[in-house]
Amino acid sequence: MRTPRRGSALDQAEAAFKSVTSKTEDKPARTTTPPEGKEMVSLRLDRAVLEHFQEDGPGWQDRINAALRVAAGLDPA
């Protein structure tokens, strides 16, 4: 036996949409800033640049990241 529906499918969809989009005091505010952390990417670098950073051994990816942060003005030189 089917459970009777309450309202039309359109009414149900609208109610569901309103329940997730309406602001209530119980819901925390959403932030637009991305979480801190690192993201894996694929990047093509000149062989000379890669060799320069790899000369000092492990940690070369962190050194590239630090150099890019300085170049982008995100960290002081």
TrEMBL record:
Pfam families: BrnA_antitoxin
InterPro entries, per the entry: BrnA_antitoxin
Region Disordered, residue ranges: 1-39
Name of the molecule in the record: BrnA antitoxin family protein
Species of the source: Devosia salina
